[in-house]
Specification:
- The structure is a single chain.
- It contains nine helices and no strands.
- It is mainly α.
- It is a multi-pass membrane protein.
- One of its GO terms (molecular function) is sodium:phosphate symporter activity.
């Protein structure tokens, strides 16, 4: 990863703030790409698992299952960015079809609400209501988008 090395070089050997900041940007972008590459290497072994292949096929024909898987995975790791990165790797390596990837992405949107729910547990009634509204808002958005899912997939394809 040359961009990562260049960023580190600029950070450590240049004291001028402009060059140092450019180094920080390059190092950050390089770290992002390094992480994506690392994640891609980590998911490759999944392609050989029969259960994983079957799940991907099932999600292609059942968008509700795909939404549930996306929501569950995001709730588990509490990071939609991480699950979207994994989803990108799956799609890039042809491990998941577009018919399954979009509903998983929608499920990620629902799964992000777990953070608000967990934070509201120790909070006031207003905090619990805000978390509930967050869940309902995301659910409504996913339901509306799911209705138009065939049209969206057709337009993207």
């Amino acid at each position: 990863m040359p961009i990562l090395a260049l960023g580190a070089f600029l950070i450590f050997f240049f004291k001028r703030s402009k060059i140092n900041n450019i180094g920080r940007i390059l190092f950050g972008v390089g770290s992002l790409f390094f992480g994506l590459e690392f994640m891609g290497d980590a998911v490759k072994p999944l392609a050989s698992l029969d259960g994983f292949k079957q799940l991907m096929l099932d999600m292609s024909s059942n968008p509700i299952l795909a939404v549930i898987v996306g929501a569950g995975l995001t709730a588990l790791v509490q990071s939609s960015s991480a699950t979207i990165g994994i989803l990108q790797e799956f799609y890039q390596q042809d491990l998941i079809s577009l018919n399954a990837a979009i509903p998983v992405l929608l499920g990620d949107n629902i799964g992000t609400t777990i953070t608000a729910i967990l934070a509201s547990l120790a909070g006031s009634i207003a905090a619990k209501r805000a978390a509930l509204v967050h869940v309902i808002f995301n659910l409504i958005g996913v339901i509306i988008f799911t209705i138009f899912l065939p049209v969206v997939i057709h337009l993207i394809s």
